[in-house]
Model the fold of this input.
Amino acid sequence: RRLRGIQARRCSRQAFRTVNFLLECSLRAPFTLFNPDTGFMEARNADGSWAGEDNGWTEGDKWAYSFDVVHDITALIEKRGGNESFVRSLDEHFDGGHNDHSNEVCITSLCPNNTPTGLSGNEDCGQMSSWYIFRAMSFYPVNTVSGEYIVGSPFFDKITIELPPTPQQKVQRQKRTLSITALGAPTKPYIKSLTVNGRKVDPPIIRYEDFADGGEIVFEMTDLVEECGNDLS
Done:
């Protein structure tokens, strides 16, 4: 029994070292391809030199891949000059036509539907559909292991979701309902305020435990840009 305990501790320490090693690699490796002179990701030649901003990409370009460090957005923002500079680069990315989804399913509100032609293009085994559903509801798990959901503008006035019961709730015949209310959302794209179960949320980030057992998410929408979520300091 003592031997098994020692072996278990050794395995635990080894697993911890492995996790730390992989975490360190994931935080370091992306920025070995960041060219500080251009502010974009760039491929490298075998000798370590830069390959040129238009070389080495597949199904994308420097614009698409320079934002693809979703597990460490804070470091990416810092590398790209801070909050204000990062927001400007996002505006340039979208306004300049660099957000190319031409090989993916159509993601506008007019395209997805429950007909045989309701999904066009490469749907990525449900990933695009799940993204659309999250986006329509107003929040998305950018970093899927963080337990945090980044809030965006909802598409509908109200969404009601019946959450599946836990084993204990099945016995007690309890229901879990999540309601998302955003009156005027189809025509008012900006968020003025947000509450979750009556609690004001600012910055616009909600956590899994906020709605895991159901609850009420309420948006106050407006057609004017508001301070909510726009802190550039």
The helical segments are 2-28, 62-66, 73-79, 83-95, 127-137, 167-172, 208-211.
